[in-house]
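User: Sequence recovery, please. Input:
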């Protein structure tokens, strides 16, 4: 959401690289869902104290969210922040996925679901960003200039 933004765009990345093929991603995701350990994240330079609102998007993995997102949530303080969540894969379990991740934001001012956005290969990132912006406008969330 970089154009005309008053916000930063940040990608959560793990130190262990995940191969881009679908089978490797599926195997890694399934294995991670049943493991209690969290992945180690690549170092990042992001200070959440500079922000009042956090928008967090992630894929839906069988009604759960990626372990890397959980690691990021546990490493940061979301106290007194408005958190907006969305999932980028609208298969079964999208609503449950949003419910599951919302439980990790007990100290936030508010947690709201922006919704479930499908991101098939035919849809590009810019179109997804446009849909999210529209949803934010409908919710009267002022983050853009």
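Assistant: Recovered sequence (145 residues):
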């Amino acid at each position: 959401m970089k154009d005309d933004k008053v916000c930063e765009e940040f990608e959560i990345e793990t130190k262990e690289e995940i191969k881009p093929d679908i089978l490797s991603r599926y195997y890694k995701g399934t294995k991670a869902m049943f493991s209690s350990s969290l992945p180690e994240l690549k170092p990042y330079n992001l200070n959440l104290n500079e922000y009042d609102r956090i928008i967090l998007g992630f894929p839906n993995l069988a009604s759960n969210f990626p372990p890397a997102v959980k690691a990021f949530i546990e490493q940061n303080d979301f106290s007194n922040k408005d958190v907006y969540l969305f999932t980028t894969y609208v298969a079964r379990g999208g609503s449950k996925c949003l419910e599951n991740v919302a439980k990790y934001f007990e100290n936030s001012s508010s947690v709201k679901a922006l919704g479930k956005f499908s991101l098939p290969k035919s849809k590009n990132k810019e179109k997804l960003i446009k849909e999210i912006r529209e949803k934010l406008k409908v919710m009267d969330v002022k983050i853009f200039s």
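Residues 1-5 have pLDDT under 50 and may be disordered.
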